[in-house]
Specification:
The protein is mainly alpha-helical. The chain contains nine helices and two strands, in the order αααββαααααα. The chain has three domains: 62 residues, no CATH class; 62 residues, no CATH class; 40 residues, no CATH class. The radius of gyration is 34 Å and the shape is elongated.
């Protein structure tokens, strides 16, 4: 057997030389493949890899980016943050916010934004308990009572808001909505400063029938209603 191998290796015939050439090509091809298969990805290719994972929305697949660190940032974390944030807003479920790292992206902020969207679409105050962070729950309840006070025209509901600093803006907004709904029945003295002037300008402008006076109103909500009043007539 050893003798036949030695004879083969002498390449003393065209057939043997042909086989040897084919083997050499195959070996070189395999080496070429292994070289490019093991080639280190450049930074742009690494970012593209992470972007594809994010696009597919599978947070477990972010583990593939574990070894990618660019400018001191671990891209597995970047990947998980992006996927979690997208899932939270796609489903309006704050549970996905808990998958955030709470450093690059805040869990509380994510939960607050999701709950704000739910409250603004008419959700009940019970949804606020879906947040894992107390601050997000408090914010959610505040938005709920703010909404209820405006919709019902009941300023007393503003005092239900836990964040004391948000109560005055709530009272003010309810009063503005009352002015818009019933200008003639609103006493502008219940406002102060520039809002009192806006109230007077709004009422006098509606009486005069001159749309140009709407531009004198500083409050955006009242000015917008003033302009809208004339565009409808």
């Amino acid at each position: 057997m050893l003798r036949s191998v030695k004879l083969f290796l002498t390449l003393d015939t065209p057939a043997k030389r042909g086989v040897a050439a084919a083997l050499l090509i195959a070996l070189l091809g395999g080496a070429y493949f292994l070289f490019f298969y093991k080639r280190e990805l450049n930074n742009e290719e690494k970012k593209e890899l992470v972007a594809r994972i994010i696009q597919k929305g599978n947070i477990d697949a972010c583990a593939r980016a574990k070894e990618i660190v660019l400018d001191g940032v671990n891209y597995e974390t970047v990947c998980r943050n992006n996927v979690a944030y997208q899932l939270a807003f796609k489903t309006l479920d704050p549970k996905y916010c808990k998958d955030l790292d709470n450093k690059l992206v805040s869990i509380e902020q994510c939960e607050a934004e999701i709950l704000l969207k739910k409250i603004n679409t008419g959700a009940d105050i019970a949804v606020c308990s879906g947040a894992s962070v107390q601050g997000a729950q408090t914010y959610c309840r505040g938005i709920y009572w703010f909404r209820e006070a405006i919709q019902k025209g009941n300023e007393a509901l503003c005092d239900t808001i836990e964040d004391v600093g948000s109560r005055a803006p709530c009272h003010e907004r309810v009063a503005i909505e009352g002015l818009i709904k019933n200008p003639s029945g609103t006493d502008c003295s219940r406002f102060s400063g520039s809002l009192a002037r806006d109230c007077e300008n709004f009422k006098s402008t509606l009486k005069s029938g001159s749309q140009n006076s709407c531009t004198l109103i500083g409050n955006e909500r009242i000015r917008s209603e003033c302009m809208g009043h004339f565009s409808k007539n």
